[in-house]
Design a protein that fits this description.
Helices cover about 25% and strands about 20% of the residues. By secondary structure, the protein is of the alpha+beta class. Strands 1-2-3 form a three-stranded antiparallel β-sheet, covered by helices on one side.
Length: about 70
């Protein structure tokens, strides 16, 4: 549904596999919880609404936490 990678500034970016949509983790608010989780939710919402795709499997929250 989306790829997760680092951008040129070292921030984490989620990229939709089906279009040019991106979500930057650093653009979300820490006061509302984990910024990475907020970005993932925004990307999953995008893929569901824009592309009619539902998530498969369980998300693995700790995979990229070692980067931050």
């Amino acid at each position: 549904m989306y790829n997760i990678k680092r951008d040129k500034t070292g921030g984490i970016v989620l990229e939709c596999k089906m279009c040019s949509r991106i979500e930057r983790v650093n653009e979300f608010d820490d006061r509302r919880g984990s910024r990475r989780t907020q970005a993932a939710l925004a990307m999953l919402t995008h893929t569901r609404i824009e592309h009619g795709r539902e998530p498969m499997g369980k998300p693995m929250a700790k995979v990229f936490e070692s980067w931050v």
